[in-house]
C-alpha cells in the first residue's frame, strides 16, 4: 500500500460519517448466542446485554459456573441477571454436536468472545443461515510491528502473528457475506482479568518488592478497561455503520512500562515502587515470562470507534486500575499465585537484595 493511500484511508477512518448507537436499549431485543461469557469479557458484556432486554445464551463447556456474583453488583442485580441468562453446554471443537445444539434455536446475533481459529467459526455460520450479525473478539496483536505508530485499522497485519487464527477468522467472515464486526483490543485489564497484566504488578507491590522492568522502561503501550470494552461491543450490535468493520478498542492515553508500575501503586495505595531495569538478553528464563507485556512500543488509534460508534473510554488508567484493585486483588482474589522466580534471577545478577518481611 502506498503512503498516500494509507494516509487517505486513515483520514477516512477518522472522518467517516457515523450513525451513532449510544446504547443497546435503542436496539430491538435480539436473540443472542455468546460463545464463552463466564470468565472475563463476557461476564460484563452479557450483563449489559441482558439489562438492555436481549435474550442471551452462553455456550460453554460448563467447566466454570454459568453465573457467579461479581463484586460490583448487588444481590438483587445478580439474581435478576442469573434468572434471565441462558446456557447451552457443549464443546465448540465438536462441530457437529455444536451445530445440532444451536441450529434450531433461532439465534439472530453471535458474540464470539473466545474464538481463536477460523475453523471454529465456520460451523457456527453454517448452522445459523439467517444470522444478522457476527461480532468477533479479535486482537490488536495481529498488527505487523512497525516504526510508525499508533496502529490504525488499515495498517499491515502480521501473517506470522500468534494471533494469525484471528486474522483468518476476519477473512472468513468477510468471505461468507454475513454482516460482521471485529473488535481488536490491546491489553485488557479490570476485575476478573485472567491474564497477568495489573495482577503481576499488584503482587510485587503487595510484597514490597522492587519491580523489574525490561530495558529503559520507556516503552509505550496501551491498556483498556474491560468495562469500556464491553460498552464498545454493545455499540456495534445491529449498527449498520459497524458492518464489515474492524475497530481498535483500548484506553484513551498511552503509557510507559514504568508508568504502569507507578499507576498500579497509586491504584492500590502503595508507596512509589522501586523500579529495577535489566536487559532480557542477559538472562535465560526458560519458558517463564519475566514481564507480562511485549517488550516494544505497542499502541493503537481508537479514533475510528469514537467517530463511528459514539464510544469513548470512561476509565482513565489510574481510575481503572483502582476499580480493578478494589473489586478484585484488593479483596484477596487473583487468578495466579505470585511467582518471583524470574525477579530473583534478575535481582541476584544485579546484586540487589530484597528485604524479607518478618
Automatic annotation (TrEMBL):
Stretches assigned to the NAD-dependent epimerase/dehydratase domain: 32-249
GO biological process, one term: monosaccharide metabolic process
Superkingdom, natural source: Eukaryota
Entries under SUPFAM superfamilies matching the protein: NAD(P)-binding Rossmann-fold domains (SSF51735)
A GO CC term attached to the entry: cytosol
Entries under PANTHER family matching the protein: CHLOROPLAST STEM-LOOP BINDING PROTEIN OF 41 KDA B, CHLOROPLASTIC, UDP-GLUCOSE 4-EPIMERASE
Protein name as it appears in the record: NAD-dependent epimerase/dehydratase domain-containing protein
Amino acid at each position: 500500500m502506498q503512503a498516500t493511500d494509507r494516509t487517505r484511508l486513515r483520514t477516512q477512518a477518522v472522518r467517516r460519517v457515523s450513525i451513532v448507537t449510544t446504547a443497546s436499549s435503542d436496539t430491538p431485543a435480539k436473540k443472542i448466542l455468546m460463545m464463552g461469557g463466564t470468565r472475563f469479557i463476557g461476564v460484563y458484556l452479557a450483563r449489559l446485554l441482558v439489562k438492555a432486554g436481549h435474550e442471551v445464551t452462553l455456550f460453554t463447556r460448563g467447566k466454570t459456573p454459568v453465573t457467579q456474583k461479581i463484586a460490583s453488583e448487588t444481590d438483587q442485580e445478580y439474581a435478576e441477571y442469573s434468572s434471565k441468562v441462558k446456557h447451552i453446554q457443549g464443546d465448540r471443537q465438536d462441530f457437529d454436536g455444536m451445530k445440532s445444539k444451536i441450529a434450531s434455536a433461532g439465534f439472530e446475533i453471535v458474540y464470539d468472545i473466545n474464538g481463536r481459529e477460523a475453523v471454529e467459526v465456520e460451523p457456527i455460520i453454517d448452522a445459523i443461515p439467517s444470522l444478522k450479525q457476527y461480532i468477533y473478539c479479535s486482537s490488536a496483536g495481529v498488527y505487523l510491528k512497525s516504526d510508525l505508530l499508533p496502529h490504525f485499522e488499515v495498517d499491515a497485519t502480521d501473517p506470522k502473528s500468534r494471533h494469525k487464527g484471528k486474522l483468518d477468522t476476519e477473512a472468513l467472515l468477510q468471505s461468507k457475506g454475513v454482516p460482521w464486526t471485529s473488535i481488536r483490543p490491546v491489553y485488557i485489564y479490570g476485575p476478573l482479568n485472567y491474564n497477568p497484566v495489573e495482577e503481576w504488578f499488584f503482587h510485587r507491590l503487595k510484597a514490597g518488592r522492587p519491580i523489574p522492568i525490561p530495558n529503559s522502561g520507556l516503552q509505550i503501550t496501551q491498556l483498556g478497561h474491560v468495562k469500556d470494552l464491553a460498552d464498545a461491543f454493545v455499540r456495534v450490535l445491529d449498527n449498520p455503520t459497524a458492518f464489515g468493520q474492524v475497530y481498535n478498542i483500548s484506553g484513551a492515553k498511552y503509557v510507559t512500562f514504568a508508568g504502569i508500575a507507578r499507576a498500579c501503586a497509586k491504584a492500590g495505595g502503595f508507596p512509589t515502587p522501586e523500579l529495577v531495569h535489566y536487559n532480557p538478553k542477559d538472562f535465560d528464563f526458560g519458558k517463564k515470562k519475566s514481564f507480562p507485556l511485549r517488550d516494544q512500543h505497542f499502541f493503537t488509534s481508537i479514533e475510528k470507534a469514537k467517530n463511528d460508534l459514539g464510544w469513548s473510554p470512561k476509565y482513565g488508567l489510574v481510575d481503572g486500575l483502582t476499580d480493578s484493585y478494589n473489586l478484585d486483588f484488593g479483596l484477596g482474589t487473583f487468578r495466579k499465585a505470585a511467582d518471583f522466580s524470574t525477579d530473583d534471577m534478575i535481582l541476584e545478577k544485579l546484586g540487589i537484595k530484597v528485604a524479607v518481611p518478618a
